[in-house]
Amino acid sequence: MPDQSPYFFIKEFSNEELMKILVAKIKELKESKADVESLNMKLQDNMAKLEELQQEIIQQRDNLKEEVRHKDEELLKAERLSAIGQLSARIAHDLRNPLNVISNTSKILRVKLEKHLDEKSSEQWARLDRAISRLSHQLEDVLDYVRMPKLKREKYSLSLICHDVIERIQMPSNISFHPPLKDATVFCDPEKMEIVFVNLIVNAIQAIGKNDGDISIEIFDDREDDSFVLINVTDSGPGVPQEIQDKIFEPLFTTKQVGTGLGLSSCKSIIMQHGGTISVQSSGKGATFTIRIPKNSDWDSMEARTNSVLASFS
Ligand SMILES: Nc1ncnc2c1ncn2[C@@H]1O[C@H](COP(=O)(O)OP(=O)(O)O)[C@@H](O)[C@H]1O
Ligand SMILES: [Mg+2]
């Protein structure tokens, strides 16, 4: 009968052999302990690096937050200033006509009544005239200040303007942006056109909100008149309700709690300054803003004329 004792195997080894196995096992254990220790060190090292990285990311996030807050403040200030500008322009414009009436009537009356006036009344009348002329100069100054400055036009790529604008705007991660596949070169003021693209894209981002969505920009020649370029800015937001479509380009019209209602009105005046038009199409979901702007054949023909004059000299 074989031995069924649980010590059956142990009994097979001599003390010396057992000692050897034990020593070998201890050595193995020591080695793996060293391995574990070195792994532990590496892990601690990596943890420290990770913590450093985390701190860096937190710092960067805080910096970005601060930058966004600062930019928001700047934008709000600029929009407020622009609102004040527009209001002053309106008031100055409205005051100019009645002031002209006062000024002209005063002149006519003075001619008629001059010989009947005593010295004191004549002096008082002269004071009135000086006040009128001071007021009209002040009004002209205000109007000069808020009037649209002249465009600084140059031949410029529209897709380059788009590209620069997208670099500046932080596109939220829930929105896929599709840049224009085609380009067109137009004779425009690139800084002013940037303002147009910024306003349209910011409106599109605000319209889409937190849901997933798309914004795309297309550029193509107007098939009916190839001296014009069409630019479509389309978003997948809720769209512009029919009943407000003809109001949205008016200054100070807004449906937003913190809106100024000046974005689209600025776009419209800039595009009009370029001899173009801007319109909206929206039925149901999504909105497309279409800009139609001349490439400026005048510029091309002027360039051709200059070239032919230069050629005649050589
Ligand atoms: N992409 C868009 N989708 C839906 N509505 C829009 C869009 N763009 C503009 N609007 C509407 O037009 C209004 C005027 O826009 P805007 O002149 O830029 O002023 P603001 O953005 O300050 O409201 C907005 O309040 C909004 O109702
Ligand atoms: Mg806006």
UniProtKB/TrEMBL annotation:
Residues 19-81 form a coiled coil. Keywords: ATP-binding, Coiled coil, Kinase, Nucleotide-binding, Phosphoprotein, Transferase, Two-component regulatory system. It comes from the Archaea. Residues 90-297 form the Histidine kinase domain. InterPro entries: HATPase_C_sf, HATPase_dom, His_kinase_dom, HisK_dim/P_dom, HisK_dim/P_sf, Sig_transdc_His_kin-like_C. GO terms for molecular function: ATP binding; phosphorelay sensor kinase activity. This is Histidine kinase.
